[in-house]
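User:
I would dearly like some help making sense of a protein record. Take your time, and here it is.
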Amino acid sequence: MATWFTEKQTENFGITAKVKRSLHKERTDFQDLEMLETEEWGNMLVLDDMVMTTEKDEFVYHEMLAHVPLFTHPSPKKVLVVGGGDGGVIREVLKHESVEKAVLVEIDGKVIEYSKQYLPAISGALEDPRVDVQVDDGFMHIAKSKREYDVIMVDSTEPVGPAVSLFSKGFYEGIAKALKEDGILVAQTDNPWFKSELVRQVHADVKETFPITKVYTANIPTYPSGLWTFTMGSKIYHPQRIPVERFTNIKTKYYTSELHNACFALPKFVKEIIE
């Protein structure tokens, strides 16, 4: 008899994947963690019954969270990733030669441990000498950092459990202080179909904190609705006014220089949410 995993994305809608087997399951100090081997998506990381990443479509999220801000900034040298214990964003960050140090602050060390075991193609870059992996509270790390980072990326789960504080206005204000005078913030900000109020509120909070605030989207099939938003806050640099020569040739599967500009063209209903 077939086994299926269903993420209940709303009270009335879910996404289902056929499961070959459960690779690991435990209750960590912070959340329920499970690694599943699925027929369609390969190995899948699930936290609190929500899909975090899969081997098949992970590149979309990780590339779009990393490359949009890193090409917007003319010379990012020190980068912080809050969350992202699977290591996918770090892998993409290190493709930029200007990056001298990438700091990963993940509150749940078990996410790092089991990603290394079951998602090696995603997590492999965590062993790079340029990477500083810290098992710590990202909110507190930001609070202690002052004018330290060129780019900060918030790779959090949805705003439940340990990630709730990562969607607060105070957190974005702390990030502004942790960034250098020309720094950039990018955060994953969920989907406009089921979480329109969250998208609206985050945009409003970031807009009150950063002179330049932009929302962009990507298609991620295993995330709720498939249409995902990211919110950028920039102190100086506008992501749609980048010299063509800045786009260096890095290996990607989703992100391109053409898509960099196109991803900021929002569907009308999304524009209405943030306006």
Observations:
- The domain at 3-54 is CATH 2.30.140.10 (Spermidine Synthase; Chain: A, domain 2).
- The mean pLDDT is 95.
- The CA atoms of residues 20 and 234 lie 44 Å apart.
